Amino acid sequence: MSTFSIFLVLITIVCFLLIVVIMVQNPKGGGLSSTISGSQMLGGVQKTTDFLDKSTWTLATILIALILLSSLSFTGSLSDTDSKIIDKTETAAPQTAPVQTAPAAPATK
Known about the structure:
Blueprint: H1 3-24, H2 32-37, H3 43-73, H4 84-92
Helix pairs in contact: 1-3
Subcellular location: Cell membrane
Transmembrane segments: 6-24, 56-74
Family: Belongs to the SecG family.
């Protein structure tokens, strides 16, 4: 299994975990207005919210790092010079017969 495939599996797992963590979070509602008003939460709920926030940021950071590392590890086996599409179009192009020129007629006086 290539390193790119390993990165692809890891990215898929991290994406799934990120979706689960985001779906578990309670909607805070109100955006910035709720944080400015400073509504107090209970201690247990606050710790759970902090854990979910930290895990969201951690998973997002891991996801970005995996994407960057996978792009660096990509060997480029199908680069521009080795492209299968280019090879197919070159072989499928109609071959033209070489143009034959008639020998020059001898000059008559």
